[in-house]
Amino acid sequence: MSILFHILKKEVFMYKIGDFIIYGNQGVCRVDEIGIPDVGGILEDKLYYTLSPVYSDGKIFIPVDTSIYMRPIVSESEAKEIIRQIPNIEANIIESQNYKTTEDYYKRLLSSHKCTDLIHIMKSVYAKRQAVKLQGKNLGHTDEKFKKIAEELLNSEFSMALDIPREEVHQYIEESIKKLKREDDRS
What we know:
By secondary structure, the protein is an alpha+beta fold. The protein is built from 6 helices and 5 strands. A 5-stranded antiparallel sheet has the order 4-3-2-1-5. Helix 3 (about 100-110) packs parallel to helix 5 (about 140-160). The radius of gyration is 20 Å and the shape is globular.
């Protein structure tokens, strides 16, 4: 019997071919294959997921037992519930002048891989932009960088979950929140 057969017999896979998952901070990826890729430098006694990033080119070969964070993308109903929570997600303005402190704060939020933490980053940066604008200053590069990362990750995941183009996610969220507000006002 082949090595692959013995490995397959022992393994229980968390994901199946065709699944869409969040892989680290890479964002949404599709599971294309599970097996031993025909690529140099790959250990032949391990099984790998072959992932295709949905919004960028390339292939990722990652052992099925990797320690890198992976999870299924949120469902449509989960995305809609998260959108309903947005008005209640608070912003924290990081006052530190030390970019490393600010960067560590945003990295910690990103590493949770939660959509609500991505929204927290975006709302925090927006609030900070408004605050520094009143002081006649500009927002720092670190804040802008992490806001962009958070937006790209959230928009990519919600695009897949809601089956809408990525560039329409922001508008979809705004319209959903306005609709919720109108419904609350009528209650």
